[in-house]
Amino acid sequence: MPSFTRRFALTACATALAPLAPLAHAQGARTLKIGATATGIPFTFLDVKSNTIQGMMVDTATAVAKAAGYQVEVQQTVFSALIPSLTGNKIDVISAAMLKTAARAEVVDFSSPVYSYGEGLIVKAEDPKAYTSLDELKGEIVGAQVGTVFLDMLNKKGIFKEVRSYDSVADMTRDLALGRIKAGLGDQPIMAYQIQQNTFKGIKLVAGYQPVNVGDVCLVVRKGDAELLASLNKAIAAVKADGTLAGIVKKWGI
User: Fold this and answer.
1) What is the pLDDT of residues 45-64, one digit of tens each?
2) CA spacing 20 to 30 A to 145: which of 41, 42, 92, 174?
3) Residues 6+ apart with CB under 8 A from 86
4) pLDDT in tens, 171-227
5) Whether this model's pTM surpasses 0.85
6) What is the C-alpha to C-alpha distance for residues 55 and 43, in angstroms, rounded to an integer?
7) Are 183 and 49 contacting, i.e. CB atoms less than 8 angstroms apart?
8) What's the pLDDT band for 253 if we cut at 50, 70, 90?
9) Rounded to whole angstroms, how far apart are CA atoms 219 and 100?
10) DSSP class per residue in the chain
11) Do the Cβ atoms of 74 and 53 come closer than 8 Å?
12) 12-33: per-residue pLDDT in tens?
């Protein structure tokens, strides 16, 4: 082939392929498998109409991933299985109402905080006592969700007749309404939201209770995944700066 013809052919080929380059890059964006629970409304929950996991932390993970150049695939996982699923490479990121703790930080890495809150105390709606601390429940039967720091809090306290564990907050509130436990401990925003929505009946959030375990909610990645962590932290800073995160928090009323 003459050199001129060969150069023309190569140039034409390059010109034809050039518009496809950005598309190929977009199609090649890494998809992050996001682990979220179906029982943590308004942070994460199963929307029965769409049969998808929705919530504040799902919106947050999606916004952060987009800012970092990733696509997302949300996978439903029970809370107690989130960290094992992450360390077992079944998911890439945890986005749920999971507080950062020293014990968890030994196993996984936490991003910059996206939200902060403490525990809430729930009792039967007709319970007249204005509890301010767990000490006032000494000798009682209390409960918390499996895998949460709140269950650890109750067990370490060592003053209760019995500490019962539950797979979900809904299961705990059901036992509480039936009088099987005296009080329950859990994520204050989750319980407050669902009581406000009249999802949990026959119980109330104790207004005067003072939380002692206030912590940060973050995105969670595998220990040592420095590249992913750095890109998520950069994206978190961006969605905070442009107001995206504040808008998400406002949308979910927390």
Assistant:
1) 999 999 999 999 999 999 99
2) 92
3) 35, 92, 93, 94, 108, 220, 221, 222
4) 999 999 999 999 999 999 989 988 988 889 999 999 999 999 899 999 999 999 999
5) no
6) 5
7) no
8) confident
9) 9
10) --HHHHHHHHHHHHHHHTTHHHHHHHHTPPEEEEEE-SEETTTEEEETTTTEEESHHHHHHHHHHHHHT-EEEEEE--GGGHHHHHHTTS-SEE-SS-B--HHHHTTEEE-S-SEEE-EEEEEETT------SGGGGTTSEEEEETTSHHHHHHHHH--SSEEEEESSHHHHHHHHHTTSSSEEEEEHHHHHHHHHTT-S-SEEE-TT---S--EEE--EEETT-HHHHHHHHHHHHHHHHTTHHHHHHHHTT-
11) yes
12) 433 333 333 333 334 467 999 9
Name the token pair of 159: 């003053």
Q: Which of 25-34, 119-128, 148-157, 218-227 has the lowest mean pLDDT?
A: 25-34
